[in-house]
Amino acid sequence: MRRSARNVFSSxxxxxxxxxxxxxxxxxxxxxxxxxxxxxxxxxxxxxxAGALGLHNAAGARYVRPEIIGLTLGATAAALIFRExxxxxxxxxxxxxxxxxxxxxxALVFLGCPWRALLRLAGGDGNAVxxxxxxxxxxxxxxxFFRSGYNLGRGAPARAxxxxxxxxxxxxxxxxxxxxxxxxxxERSAVLLYSLQGPGAMRAPxxxxxxxxxxxxxxxxxTRFCTMGAFRDLLLFRQMHLLSGVIALVxxxxxxxxxxxxxxxxxxxxxxxxxxxxxxFAGMALAGLAFALAGGCPGRQLFxxxxxxxxxxxxxxxxxxxxxxxxNFGLASSPAGPGPHAAAGLSxxxxxxxxxxxxxxxxRTG
Amino acid sequence: MNDTAMxxxxxxxxxxxVLMTLDALRARSGGxxxxxxxxxxxxxxxxxAAGSRGWSVEGVEEEDGGVFRIRVAxx
Lengths: 366, 75
Prior knowledge:
The structure holds two protein chains of two kinds. By secondary structure, chain A is mostly helical. Chain A is built from 14 helices and five strands. Chain A has helices at about 10-30, 40-50, 65-80, 95-110, 115-120, 125-145, 160-180, 205-225, 225-235, 240-260, 275-295, 300-305, 310-330, 340-360; strands at about 1-5, 90, 155, 190, 190-195. In chain A, strand 4 and strand 5 form a beta hairpin. Chain A starts with a strand and ends in a 7-residue tail after the last helix. Chain B is an alpha+beta fold. Chain B is about 30% helix and about 35% strand. Chain B is built from two helices and four strands, in the order E-H-E-H-E-E. In chain B, strands 1-2-4-3 form a four-stranded mixed β-sheet, covered by helices on one side. In chain B, helix 1 packs parallel to helix 2. The longest helix of chain B is centred in the middle third of the chain and has 13 residues, at about 40-50. The interface of A and B includes residues 86, 151 and 233 of A.
């Protein structure tokens, strides 16, 4: 038995600093080629990975985004250095898969994960407000379930390979990206698909994108940065710790946007966005509820996957599968508006999340 | 007050360890409580939550298997 070391990154100042780093890096990635207000969007980028692997047919959303690989492996590096890499799993994996899939469907109705909702706000996209209100509403419903004893059950330590499987998957994707680089004017490079136009064709230099992901992944693993957790902790515990980092992200990204000419206030003609407020609200309400029930925003799920958490990894794989469903079934929005079957997708998602929230509970004991 | 009160939140991820800890703290006006968690992040969150409710962390020990034994008290 030994006395436990204290994590200097657990201070509020560190969370604020990391929020600022994410905001600055995201805005710079936009300047370097990533789509508008999409410097880093975990949902959009996982959707692009699904497209690059041929899991859906949206021609404008295909690219193995190095940021996602970096976010995961940066967290793995931090976890290894600080002795926090801990293979674990076994807490209702199939439920987490479903939550990931429906979280993605909701996010793609809005067109962005919580990080992108913040970046859209920081870029002047007024439609983000409806999305953020939806996100907070979904999380609030999740806190009601938490108060009544909801949880997904205990996980358990797992064998090393189980913990390494997701970081290895990311290393495999990086290898594919390196051996199948984009070819000018071609949709296919060996096994990978690429977008020739649309957001999937807008990309910062791969090395920069990977480096940015590694940096954010490393820092966010240390500070436990989580956008869902920020609002959840405020609603559940009246605690501002994580929220201070979220606010810092918005402020920093907004300042960089102002300096670099990327701030365009308004509701119409915003990049990769539509202005149907009700759909923006409802999409993010579903996503927020699913993130809350699964215990983390998409970014945090990547960081936990990088630490060896097999349950978080199943959620991420669920999100990638959800992106394929969202596009193949006409659930995802486009800048023109919601997909033809968005209402059905959101209804099914909300119903299943409510069933999960109501049924997976036990009396709390203390 | 029972000095050996214990919350076992091993295997649970946040917010459960914090909810369980706060439930236990609410149930008593003072004394000591031991919380078991098996993740660094749960340890930090439990310590932060206890601190914000006026309880002080008297010690944290790491046992084999990555289990943290957090002892909080209000005298």
